[in-house]
Amino acid sequence: MTDLIQANQLKRKGKLEEAIAGDRLAIDSNPTFAWSHHNLGEVLAKLGRFDQVATAYGRAIELNPNLAWPHYNLGLVLEKQGKLDEAHAFLLKTSELNPDFTKFSKNLANVIAKR
Fold first, then answer.
1. CA dist 73 to 28, 29, 108, Å?
2. N or C: which end of the chain has fewer CB within 10 A?
3. CA-CA distance, 96 to 37, in Å (whole number)?
């Protein structure tokens, strides 16, 4: 867990490459902890490495399909890439997992309007 905490601190300081290394150490230490994969996806997204983002968020979703945030963040990345149907599916799942969080519903509505 220490690697994950350090990676988050590095991410907040803007040391993104170092944060990636920390996230990867956290994954190596505990490969089945979904949040480590999610956090890696967040940093990769900040760096625009969208080809790797889907893998990181996808793994987080595989490990814990009930986590709303990896669905949400993957939906946003897919929306930015113009993959609106795929984005819709992930954002819809996010709203199903957490229907009371209006941020999720607003982004789902935005994607629906673009489709």
1. 23, 24, 12
2. C
3. 22
